[in-house]
Amino acid sequence: MANSVKQKKMRSKKAVERSTNAVIYVILVAISVIWLFPYVYLLLQSLRGEPGIMTRYFFPKKWTFGNYIRLFKNQGLSKANKPISTGDYNFLNWYGRTFLIAVVVTVIQTVIVLVTSYALSRMRFKMRKPLMNAMLILGMFPGFMSMTAMYFLLQLIGLTQDMSIVGLILVYVGSSCMGYYICKGFFDTIPKSLDEAARIDGANRQTIFFKIILPLSKPIIIYTILTSFMGPWGEYMFASLIANGSPKYWNVAVGLRDMIQRESLAKYNDGFQRFCAAAVVVSLPITILFFILQRYYVEGVTGGSVKG
Amino acid sequence: MAKTVSQLDYLGMSGWQKFCYNFLQFLKKLPVAFLSIFTVWIPKFARKIYNSVKRFFLTLWNAARHGDWKTRMSFLVMGFSQFSRKQIMRGLLFLVFEILFIIYMVAFGAAQLSMFGSLGVRDTIQGGEDPVTGERLPTVVGDNSLLILLYGILTMIFIIAFVYAWYANIKAAYAVQQYVEANQHLTTAKEDLNALADAQYHKTLLAGPLIGLVIFTIFPIIFMVFVAFTNYDMQHMPPNKTFDWVGWANFKSLFAGGLSGGTDFGRVFGKLLLWTVIWAIFATFTNYILGMIVAIMINKKGIKLKKLWRTVLIMTIAVPQFVSLLLMSQMLADEGALNMLFGTSIPFLTDPVLAKVTVIVVNIWVGIPFTMLMVTGILMNIPADLYESARIDGAGPVRMYFKITLPYVLHVTTPSLISNFVGNINNFGVIYLLTGGGPSMAAGGSGGAGETDLLITWLYKLIQDKKQYGIASVISIMMFVLTAVISLIVYNRSKAVKNEEDFM
Fold first, then answer.
1. pTM
2. Which of A213, A231, B147, B204 has a CA that sits 20 to 30 A from residue B502's CA?
3. Is CATH 1.10.3210.10 correct for A66-306?
């Protein structure tokens, strides 16, 4: 008798468990739809053949790669209401500029972050604590205001117009040592005894950094590379400031935002489709890269947040 | 809850109780903590400055009194003491720096600095044909206040660096003398270089990054603070017109209220500040709570396809954020995809109230995956034996959640919660790319600010469209004070909490 009661209890518990799981599945499916819907829409619209800004139906009636082709051939698109020589409003140009900037920034920034993190994690010197506190406080200034000052400074040394690639790189890289936090947290978890053993064997700090710490830090190096690349790839504020309104010096973020301004959309009846095509082209490399290196990104996010 | 509970009672609380208790304690201590900026932090800082000034003069005095002629000579010729005692490398570095500094000051710096007080007086006079005589007049280029200000600040930074180097030179000169007198070994250039790869390695490593920090972060901030005291705006645009020092006028027009230049800065600032704080609170906590719930659902035992759910959510991280936001702004527009597809006409982004809700909701869409990833990692770190022993004690899943999971996650993520909050106060991208700050405010004198504008996006408009540099600087200084105060208080408070009760 007692046995069957227990069994019944077990069975009802299982039923509860099953219904909770069912509810969770429903929620998860709903979430997935919400999260994926915009991107699926983006992809479909980029392949839409019919003209018009928006359609009342989800799936295009005519499929085409024309939007992509026109995007790359730079046909019939110029800044709305302002006659500008066609060469300026050039998606490929923006793309190339952004890519170049992102790659250079990634290299320099990764080096700076690693180096700063090592010094702050492994070395003990008088200015260490004050330095960390100072960086904490400096990080609270609204970045935008310092950007205007930097703009004037760059203008002074002639790094705004044709040299704006260099200017942008300098600005993005300039204060990157303030992003040492997550990387230092990772270095802190590498046992100090490794350093000490190496020191006994006669290695100096430099050798320890290159021969011991760096080889052990693959996940965090990849994380730093990934985030350093994604930063300038999607940066809007300073890129638009430094271009000062001339499309020649834009990056993809500024260009794409301009493409969907109301007046641009109204003027060209394939403006929105072309924006979607551009968005796909901009997102694709970074999205693929991200999914390949996802593991490292997750490690970085979780590791960084756990350190207090 | 208001009174302080004993350690034992505290340990007996559930996770939520603990959280609420800590939160209430935090609120209670907020005024005190705020005052402590004035009673503790500023005096502490002042004392530190006093001590270093004292040390500065004491060192100089000692070197002048006890130093031999070589050391005293170093007061004039930097590096002389090292030079004459065969530390050629170090001496040479000091000397070169001094020579460079003198050349710079004579050729350039002094002149710039002398104009710093007035910021230039001559406006540019446009040339052209004289209407009366028909004579061609040349354009006379006036003073460029902007350049004077920039060079002035740079020169000041350079002077400070020089004074520091001079001080270090004298200190070292005297030290070298003492070394020689005591017959101790002086380091050779080769040893110095070796030390830079070992004991002094941090100097090698940090030199580059810190120079970048000074040029690209500290210098702009100093510049910004100076600009706050000038009337640099559309009517005073160098190089055609000079701008001047105006003292506290910009601060007054922000706080005294009333229109200045067609904009009621005080009212707009107050309104946007309120919305910024509301936004930051909602954006931070909705993401946090909902993200945690999603993470727990995905990680629940018995849920299959964990990896798939996670990957789907990560889409908003993997796609560049500006693409997602621009796309959303199109989908939610009045004639955007959502309204078209469902045949509705909901003013997602054009109704003042609904627009605010929409930006918060979209922010959730963008932000949940970050929290989800973070919490997932933490959930995996919770020792399994905690749950095991809880199960043996007969605890159900709900109880385990409130007693183990929640306290653990809360405890571990406090720092990231703080940085998220500060990040949301300065969250330019979500607002600007989504609504552009719109819809515009109904009342006049809004200075271009819209209903969903945060302080940071308003700043952007003030600078980019209206060129109101002076007042924009004041606003960013106020924003800095706001974020600095909040984070310093929370930071100290959370550190205190951590020392009190380390989880486990």
1. 0.84
2. A213
3. no
